[in-house]
Design a protein that fits this description.
The protein is mostly helical. The chain is 67% helix and 0% strand. The chain has 2 domains: 105 residues, no CATH class; 138 residues, no CATH class. Helix 5 crosses helix 9. The longest helix is centred in the C-terminal third of the chain and has 29 residues. It is globular, with a radius of gyration of 20 Å.
Length: 300
């Protein structure tokens, strides 16, 4: 895709003017910041997502299911370019099922039912369709990656035992911290980035950008946690750091997958950003990380 790259959860290294002095050997690429399409599409997304999160209920459930379906379709396209293609139907079906798990009745939302059923269906279908074992395994892994990530956000929204409105606040804090990670990483990387961060996966990301993103997440969670959901200040800052690490890890994981698939963006859905997965990559790991943290500390 020819659109400029989206803000990364790890931050881009600054770019040099091609007309200036030649770059030194081993110098890292610098990227031009073109904010207009990125800001415009981000504004539309923020309004849409924030509105549906605030409304909650069925509209939010539909949003999560739609995001799971679209994201799984993009993920299936990426996996299809890998050495062992995954069955797209398995990725989409499992991702949507897992994403909606928190609002499904009875056994339909139970992981002890979902995972064995998905395993059996994937393996049997693989045999019948003559798909390689590795392809079925990749399909199951892709569905888990996307479905558990989005399903954890819906699980936070419907947090059991929490007072009314706390679930909304939890999701808002996680989303806000991930956005802060992306934004500060992007601008810090452009302004200060000098040292590469996992250059074999994403050569233009910097350590400085990663640190700036982590500071942003800790500020958001450290301030909002105690004020909004009465979380211990130290736990809130720790949650912010966990979100930053998970979001940056999610960005790197998707970058590694795109590199293996030989593409720059996961899709063309969002002007200035690429595909839906390019926007969800940080949330897909941050949501489960926060969910597990809150279970461990018995948050109520």
């Amino acid at each position: 895709m020819s659109t400029p790259p989206a803000p990364s959860a790890i931050g881009a290294l600054p770019t040099a003017d091609a007309a200036s002095a030649p770059a030194a050997v081993g110098a890292l690429p610098r990227r031009r910041m073109n904010l207009l399409p990125r800001v415009a599409s981000s504004a539309v997304l923020v309004v849409l997502v924030a509105g549906l999160i605030y409304v909650g209920g069925i509209p939010l459930d539909v949003l999560v299911g739609a995001a799971a379906a679209l994201g799984a379709w993009e993920l299936g396209s990426l996996l299809a370019r890998c050495p062992v293609p995954a069955p797209r139907w398995l990725v989409v079906a499992l991702a949507v099922w897992l994403a909606e798990r928190a609002v499904l009745p009875g056994a339909g939302g139970n992981l002890e039912v979902i995972l064995p059923a998905a395993l059996a269906a994937g393996m049997v279908a693989g045999v019948l369709l003559h798909s390689p074992w590795e392809g079925s395994a990749a399909g199951l892994g892709g569905g888990l990656y996307l479905g558990v990530g989005l399903g954890s956000l819906l699980g936070l929204y419907h947090w059991v035992g929490a007072a009314p409105g706390v679930g909304l606040d939890l999701v808002a804090i996680v989303v806000g911290a991930v956005v802060a990670t992306d934004t500060l990483a992007y601008f810090t990387g452009h302004a200060l980035g000098r040292h590469p961060f996992f250059p074999s996966i994403s050569p233009s990301k910097s350590v400085e950008g990663a640190v700036g993103g982590a500071v942003g997440a800790m500020l958001v969670a450290g301030i909002a946690g105690p004020l909004v959901i009465s979380l211990n200040p130290f736990a809130a800052v720790g949650m912010g750091l966990l979100i930053a690490v998970a979001a940056e890890g999610g960005d790197l994981a998707e970058s590694a997958l795109k590199r293996q698939a030989g593409v720059k963006d996961s899709g063309r859905l969002i002007p200035g950003h690429g595909g839906l997965l390019d926007r969800l990559d940080g949330l897909l790991l941050a949501g489960p990380a926060v969910y597990c943290l809150l279970v461990l500390i018995a948050f109520r």
